[in-house]
Amino acid sequence: MVEQVETSMSETGKLCVDGSEFEMPVIVGTEQEKALDIGSLRARTGYITLDDGYANTGACRSAITFIDGEKGILHYRGIPIEQLAGKSRFVETAYLLIWGELPTSDQLASFSRQLTENALIHEGMKYHFEGFPNTSHPMAMLSAMINALSCYYPFVLEFETDKDIDKAATLLMSKVRTLAAFSYKMSKGQPFVYPDPNRRYVGNLLHMMFTVPYKQYEVPRAFQKALDLIFMLHADHEQNCSTSTVRMVGSAGANLYSSVSAGVCALWGPLHGGANMGVIQMLEQIQEGGMDIDTCVKLAKDKESGFRLMGFGHRVYKNYDPRAKILKAAAERVFAQLNHRDPLLDIARRLEERALSDQYFIDRKLYPNVDFYSGIIMRAIGIPTNMFTVMFAIGRLPGWIAHWREQFLQGSGRIARPRQVYTGQQQRDYIDMDKRRA
Ligand code: SDX
Fold first, then answer.
1. pLDDT digit string, tens, across residues 204-218
2. CB 3.0–4.6 Å: which of 107, 193, 237, 379 could bond 103 by disulfide?
3. Strand 79-80 versus strand 73-76 pairing type
4. pTM of the full structure
């Protein structure tokens, strides 16, 4: 039982276990969220806490992103996502997340120039791509090649000062596009296309993906804006599974690149960043008549079915994901500009409407999340479904960098090492082979 004891000095929480009372300090965040600091719990009570999926557990103090799940609020370094979506661009937002402030025009120009100048990857890395089967999943290649970067740029393994980190971070932000584009080209059996210094961040990625030797790809402005917005909306989301993975790996003193490589693997999971692929597969199934909307909702409600409404629900948002709201409007804009309509968008809207009026979804506060509409826009751009989570990874990279950097500079040096409740066999003796029974 925890009761909050108002004290003049500072708030504390009282924990009563085994008949004794223990006061725990209460930490109050900038937006008044409260936490019990249980750092001394085990030493004082012999107890640990158990929290499946860490739904109630804060892993750190962070100044990067604030989410209010009940109100559907998302701020990057204090700035509402709606304002950034309307006024900023991905590169500027990445700068804000990593270094904490919106850049001046000189700082932004310098950052953009470094991103342009570092887009090439070492020629030796091409042979790694050629070694992958062309059926390899791009997320497997992305994770492997981000780690391989440190073999070709070993200075990223020496990081003493924040200047070292800034350099490694900028290099990674730049080269991640080339790695992604090369993995796409490899899967298409097409020659690699090198970065073009005259193109901006997103335009260069689309150029490297879609230009072919006989035809330069001219990036439609609507596509560049839409993908830039998708990256911006994905740029950070506080302690989500992949970012927590980056922080966990970084807490062992591992370098930025290997920490991010692990984050890519976590993001690949269908419950996390892999959901954007799952949404399109679900909508296509409905479109092809494999399933109708009512069946889809019925299956999602049936625990035995193992089916989930992809792109719906969220550990933190118990309201409409503000990013989904922005992406839904962006999808409408892109199709209006293209004078084209993807039937999947209409199916998505009908599915959303049907689910949001269903008591199961209402009771559990399940709303569309960032993945519900992002895939429809990427499909319109011509990005294949198996590259959707790679796009999510490119968008999330500044967040991963920002959190790794924040943890490194906080310098607590404590390795992340949770406890457990053991539920295995009690102590027993070794059994010689001739005495064992199946
Ligand atoms: C991302 O954490 C982040 O911030 C992630 C992210 C980011 O930017 O990094 O926002 C990106 O990962 C978005 C989520 C993408 N994943 C999906 O869209 C997959 C479908 N969604 C679910 O699997 C689920 O909603 C999660 C994984 C997103 C959240 O899972 P939780 O918080 O563990 O929720 P839960 O499983 O405890 O669900 C609570 C209830 C359960 O029912 P009951 O046991 O209470 O009866 O809601 C049900 C669940 O069965 N439920 C769903 C559902 N999501 C939850 N039922 C049907 N369809 C769904 N999508």
1. 999 999 999 999 999
2. 107
3. antiparallel
4. 0.94
